[in-house]
Amino acid sequence: MNPQELKHALSSGLLSFPLTDFDSNLQFDAKGYAKRLEWLMPYGATVLFAAGGTGEFFSLDEALIVPAPSPRVPLIVGGRSDAAVRRAAKFGDGWLGIWVSPRRFSAVCDQIAGEAGEAGRDSNAFEHALNVWCGFAPTREAARVPLAAQMQDFYQMPFEPFERYSPYGTPEQVAEFLSPYVESGCTRFNVIPCADDPESAIVAVGELRKLLA
Question: What is the pTM assigned to this prediction?
């Protein structure tokens, strides 16, 4: 791939950063990594980034951040799999959900609390969040248009499979959709706003924040 081809690929589709697989001895698992890449291929990623500790221009074998940030940076673990939920319970400060119902969100919070307690961790110290695409406009019909267009462009697949998890309408309507997640244990929302223009999206998110406060 020449530089121009790479430039086009980077700007034309989904970028994927697959996890690097290791075996029980912490050695690179080439077969597991190959299976992971095969699993990712149907999702339409135009570029895959292989993560590692050493590259042509860098080495992270003994990397440190000194001095340590204060206050400490929380470790929020994302993912829908049971393995991701277990990692959040044992090592993280919270879980970042996406494409889940309020019921599923609540169940994951309960699972994390239970497994954290078994690991001797304080289950009340977690901060759970939801990553959510939202469309904003004076009507639901108008709000759906930019949301569907941007999501289809980003994921390179139809909007319909995402629609039930992606609220759209006025800030009040979006807040009504998200309120059950707050009741299910969500303390933060990572909102990806879509509207006819960036200024309208920013204003709508500000209103949404007030409604959910």
Answer: 0.69
